Structures are given as structure tokens and as C-alpha cells.
Backbone:
């Protein structure tokens, strides 16, 4: 074997090993989610018990519904707010732009727990307490800056003379914005929305500090169930294996579909 | 009645108001609480009390060591991966990069739970608490290191490597004189993106460290139930750390840092 192929093998081996480590916990759960027993390591027989348990438990279904609805709401509102914000910032004077950009970065670079604590104390200080509204605001605070970050580069790439051409041809500024500017930043808006969804679905810390009492998301529910660790929760824990597997399959599907459609579009434009 | 003329700038007003109320104002609330006592009198005592408590100080040291080890391990793993992928001529290397990011999109707590189950199966849970915590943090924060490194190494002009080779530089000098200096911005933003959650994200240390590992973020959680002034003080210290490290690493670079926003 010559030196070059050896190095090539080493490189591939290293990348492969790290990927294997990354996927090992998920694959372990995926395999045992189809196991009859509750114990990882002892294979009973193939069954859908854990899936039946997952879909038969109204509490678990409720918290999954909570998580999804919250993510959709927070992502939609964040996308509207963030897109408008990015447009406003892009066309503002340098000074205003810099100040808004700086403020918008705070939740991005800040430790999540600092954001969460500051919001929680501020809400209580002004008498808002903790409600669905404060929870939604909390999620919007962590999502919206990422929407701005996704939309901004598309605005910078845009050819500004098109907007002026539209005005010259008699379009109103609002119409020019909708018909000329908006279509060009749509990819940024979509990726911002997707990112907002994943950030909201993923969140634990901000949720814990801003949620109304009794409100559970996947994150808070799973955390509490694993940390309590009594016999009753052991049964719940194995239904999380099924949930992890389902989420993993959904994500893989989304990634594959996005890659395929994305590639086709690029080929068409070529 | 004044009729507002439509201007593109005005579109930013809702977001500006949102930032003012829900980002800027809460920071001032933290600032106020950190410097006051329960009777709302100005005081430095929160800081003095915290930093003169030996048990608190030893926890801080442990937390910093955990964060440091996590960051170094992430860097050591992520740099070769980012370098190999960025320099590879493979057509589908983007797909491999995606493979590193995909696990990040499964719910964070479920992901940590999966590691917990793996450790439980291997008999490590409750045995090697510090190892488990560091493993979990590396697992969860690795993409934050890979992505900025990949984007900065991608930007390095290929002719620079050729020039280095033409001028007699061997692989090592090319690495230390070309790759490393040019990848520095990526390293800096990767390090900040990993170091900070490693100090503060107590979900990982609680679930994998069997509640035996305390990190700085956990203080805030504990104070939240008992003393907001002390909690705000810890938060303020973390806030200052964030600002200083961001400033030191030459400001924030959006394109390297958007958690895969541009993927």
C-alpha cells in the first residue's frame, strides 16, 4: 500500500469512528425500541410494545403536542418578526443597524441560562408572572436572532438595483418589497424558520424558567422522568426509546428530502 | 392626522421594540438585582459572599476544568474532521458534514437520555461521573466546533498551500504557518461556542454525572428558587465573561456561528 492510500484510509477511518460514536447511543435505542423487554442488553423478541405504550399514554401524547404546537407558534412568530427586523436593519442607517445587530446578538452568544433567568425575573418583576405568553416570548427570544442571521446574508447578496427598477417602473414601495425583494430572500426565511423550529423543539432551559406550572414539553418531561428514577418511571423511559427512534427517522427523512430537492434546484439553475 | 409614509426602515420597529423589552431590559434587571440586597439597597455583598465561600470556589474550579477539557477534546476531534472535509475533493462531502449535524436535531434531552442509556448498559452510569459528563458535553457540543472550523478552512485559498510547498515548507510548517493562523477565527468562535455551554448547561451534568457533578450554571438554578440577588450576580459574572471573550476574539462573526443556519 502506498503512502497516499494509507493516509486516505486513516482519514476515512477517523471520520467514520467519530460518526460511529455519534450515532451509537441513538442506534442502540433504535434497536431496543423494537425489543419486547424494558432492559437494554437482553433481547426478548421483536415487538412494538414500546410504540404502543408511547401512543397509548395520553400524558406523553399531550406533552408531544405541547412541544410541537409551541415550536410551530414560536417559529412562525419569530420568522415574521425576524424577517421584518432583518429588512428594517438592512435599510437603516449604519448606527441604528449596528445597535440593533448588537442587541440581536446578545441571546445568540449569551449562556442560555442567563437569558432564561433574566427573562424569568423580568417577567415576575413587571407582574407578568409565568404563563403561556411568557413561555412563547422566551422561545421567540432564542429563535428570532437566528432568523435574522439566516435572512441577513440573502439581503446582502441581493441586487439592490432591482428594487429601484421596480419603483421606476411604477410599483409602490410596498409592492416592490413584496414582489421583488421578498422572493429573493425566501431561502433565508425558510432556513430561518427551520432553525427556529429545531431551536424551540430542543429547548430545555428557557422553557423551565418561563413556563406556566404544569406545562410540559418533551425536554422537561424526559428530564424529570430520568432524574426521578423510581420504578414507575422505568416503564415511561422505554417509551422514550420509541420516541427517539421516531424523531430520528423524521429528521433523517427531512434531511434527505431537503438534500435531494436542493440539489435538483441547483442543477436546474445551472 | 399624520399619515405615515411607508419606509423600509419602519419594518424593523417591531423587532427593535421586542429587543428593547425582552433582551435589553432583562439584562438591566439582572444588573439591578446583582447589586442590591433583599431591601433593594445597593451592595457589593453578593459578590463578596459568593467569592469568599471556599466550597463555591472549588465548584467553580471543577466547572472550569470540565469546560476546558471538553473544549480541548472538541477541538482535537473537530479540527481534523473539519480539515479533512474542507480539503477533500469528494463531491458529496457536504452530506458527510450533514451527518455530523443531524443528531443535533433530535431533542437535546432525548439525546442526552440516549447517552445515559448507553452508559447504563455499559455499567458506567454512577461510576465514572466526570468522564460521563465530559463525554456527553463533547457529544452535544461537537457540531458547534466543527461548523465554524469547516467554514474558515474552506475559505483558505488552495494556492497558499501550493505556495508554501513551492517555498520548501513541509507538511508541519504549512500547518503551523498557513492553516493554523488562517483558521484562528474559526477556532476562536468554536471555542466560545463550546466553552460557554460546558460551564452552564447543567442538563448534561445532572443526567450523566448522576447529580454528583456541579457546574456554574447549576448555581443559577439553585439560587433561582432561593435568592434572585445571588442568582443575578452569578448571571452577571457569566455575562461579563461572554462579553469579554467575544470582544477578545475580535467580535462576533455571524456566518461562522449560526448553528448551521447556512447549511
Residues:
Amino acid at each position: 500500500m502506498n503512502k497516499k492510500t494509507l493516509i486516505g484510509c486513516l482519514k476515512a477511518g477517523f471520520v467514520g469512528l467519530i460518526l460511529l460514536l455519534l450515532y451509537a447511543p441513538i442506534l442502540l435505542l433504535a434497536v431496543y425500541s423494537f425489543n419486547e423487554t424494558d432492559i437494554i442488553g437482553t433481547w426478548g423478541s421483536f415487538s412494538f410494545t414500546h410504540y404502543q405504550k408511547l401512543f397509548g399514554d395520553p400524558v406523553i401524547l399531550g406533552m408531544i403536542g405541547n412541544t410541537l404546537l409551541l415550536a410551530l407558534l414560536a417559529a412562525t412568530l419569530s420568522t415574521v418578526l425576524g424577517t421584518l427586523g432583518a429588512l428594517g436593519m438592512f435599510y437603516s442607517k449604519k448606527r441604528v443597524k449596528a445597535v440593533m445587530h448588537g442587541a440581536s446578538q446578545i441571546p445568540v452568544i449569551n449562556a442560555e441560562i442567563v437569558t432564561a433567568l433574566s427573562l424569568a425575573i423580568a417577567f415576575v418583576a413587571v407582574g407578568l408572572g409565568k404563563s403561556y405568553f411568557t413561555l412563547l416570548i422566551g422561545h421567540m427570544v432564542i429563535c428570532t436572532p437566528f432568523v435574522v442571521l439566516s435572512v441577513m446574508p440573502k439581503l446582502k447578496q441581493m441586487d439592490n438595483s432591482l428594487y429601484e427598477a421596480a419603483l421606476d417602473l411604477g410599483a409602490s414601495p410596498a409592492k416592490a418589497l413584496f414582489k421583488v425583494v421578498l422572493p429573493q430572500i425566501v431561502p433565508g426565511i425558510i432556513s430561518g424558520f427551520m432553525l427556529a423550529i429545531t431551536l424551540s423543539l430542543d429547548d430545555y432551559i428557557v422553557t423551565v424558567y418561563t413556563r406556566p406550572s404544569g406545562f410540559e414539553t418533551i425536554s422537561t418531561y424526559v428530564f424529570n422522568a430520568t432524574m426521578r428514577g423510581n420504578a414507575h418511571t422505568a416503564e415511561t423511559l422505554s417509551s422514550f426509546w420509541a420516541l427517539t427512534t421516531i424523531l430520528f427517522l423524521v429528521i433523517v427523512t427531512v434531511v434527505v428530502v431537503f438534500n435531494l430537492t436542493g440539489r435538483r434546484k441547483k442543477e436546474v439553475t445551472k | 392626522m399624520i399619515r405615515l409614509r411607508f419606509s423600509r426602515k419602519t419594518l424593523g420597529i417591531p423587532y427593535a421594540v421586542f429587543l428593547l423589552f425582552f433582551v435589553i431590559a432583562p439584562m438591566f434587571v439582572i444588573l439591578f438585582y446583582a447589586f442590591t440586597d433583599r431591601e433593594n439597597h445597593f451592595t457589593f455583598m453578593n459578590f463578596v459572599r459568593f467569592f469568599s465561600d471556599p466550597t463555591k470556589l472549588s465548584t467553580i474550579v471543577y466547572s472550569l476544568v470540565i469546560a476546558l477539557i471538553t473544549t480541548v477534546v472538541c477541538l482535537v476531534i473537530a479540527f481534523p474532521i473539519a480539515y479533512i472535509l474542507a480539503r477533500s475533493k469528494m463531491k458529496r462531502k457536504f452530506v458527510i458534514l450533514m451527518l455530523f449535524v443531524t443528531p443535533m436535531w433530535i431533542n437535546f434531552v432525548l439525546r442526552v437520555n440516549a447517552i445515559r442509556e448507553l452508559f447504563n448498559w455499559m455499567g458506567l452510569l454512577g461510576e465514572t461521573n466526570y468522564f460521563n459528563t465530559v463525554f456527553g458535553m463533547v457529544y452535544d457540543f461537537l457540531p458547534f466546533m466543527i461548523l465554524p472550523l469547516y467554514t474558515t478552512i474552506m475559505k483558505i485559498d488552495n494556492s497558499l498551500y501550493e505556495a508554501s510547498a513551492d517555498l520548501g515548507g513541509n507538511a508541519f510548517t504549512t500547518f503551523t504557518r498557513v492553516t493554523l493562523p488562517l483558521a484562528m477565527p474559526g477556532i476562536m468562535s468554536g471555542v466560545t461556542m463550546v466553552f460557554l455551554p460546558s460551564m452552564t448547561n447543567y442538563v448534561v451534568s445532572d443526567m450523566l454525572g448522576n447529580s454528583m457533578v456541579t457546574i456554574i450554571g447549576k448555581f443559577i438554578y439553585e439560587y433561582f428558587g432561593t435568592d434572585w440577588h445571588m442568582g443575578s450576580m452569578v448571571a452577571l459574572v457569566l455575562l461579563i465573561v461572554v462579553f469579554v471573550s467575544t470582544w477578545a476574539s475580535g467580535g462576533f462573526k455571524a456566518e461562522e456561528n449560526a448553528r448551521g443556519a447556512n447549511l
Remarks:
- The first helix of chain B runs from residue 13 to 34.
